Amino acid sequence: MKNSLKFTFDSGQTALAIRVNQQAELPNALKQIGLNDSRPVLVVVGGASNISESDFLGIQRLFVEVLAPIVEALGAYVVDGGTDAGVMRLIGAARTQIAAKFALVGVTPAGKVALPSELETDSDLTPLEPNHTHFLLVPGNNWGDESPWISDVATVLAGGAPSVTVLLNGGEITFKDALYSVNAGRLVVVIAGSGRTADILAGALAGNATDDRAQELAKSGKLQCINFGIESGVDNLGQIIKGLLSTKE
């Protein structure tokens, strides 16, 4: 584990970051960047690219009207993959749009991302999402290497507080993300109607499995499906997520 870093993005926004090499370093690493108290945690996994325009609009509304306000009201953390794409870009933009203060923590493979100072030098690397407040740079040169780390970071941050994973849209890596949450005992809320992997998992929960991975995840008992459409489901979804993240007395 190295000393913490401070990133400054072109927008002028700043974020604290740290590199870690082993899961055992996580508690101290998180404390080093100021994340040292247990709070409810929302893990966001899903599409980083290839989200259709119609799905994008619904997911955008979900973040702005439901997820970001609930996280802010509860003083919770959000953990995701941290890059400037897909659902990670949307939760970052929603945080800024509602002027929220919650910690937004990106967990990303060090070998795949460009730090703000490197954007002009290596176009093959993916930029970090500039509305995030914290980043953990974890070992890896491939997308998906961050999946176990996202789950572990959420577990450490939550401590004894509730945590839940919300899965929207997604591709191949999203199956992996879901599996790590399930293996950690974390409920995965699948947003049916958000496209691709989410809809495959929703189908498996309804008994219409077309993918072996989806069938196995559906059998875990750790998946819950919520239907969401642009014109319906917002209030119900908000109540469910708030209930799952609210600290038990």
Automatic annotation (TrEMBL):
InterPro entries: LSDAT_prok, TRPM. This is LSDAT prokaryote domain-containing protein. It holds the Pfam family LSDAT_prok. It comes from the Bacteria. Residues 39-227 form the LSDAT prokaryote domain. It comes from Nostoc paludosum FACHB-159.
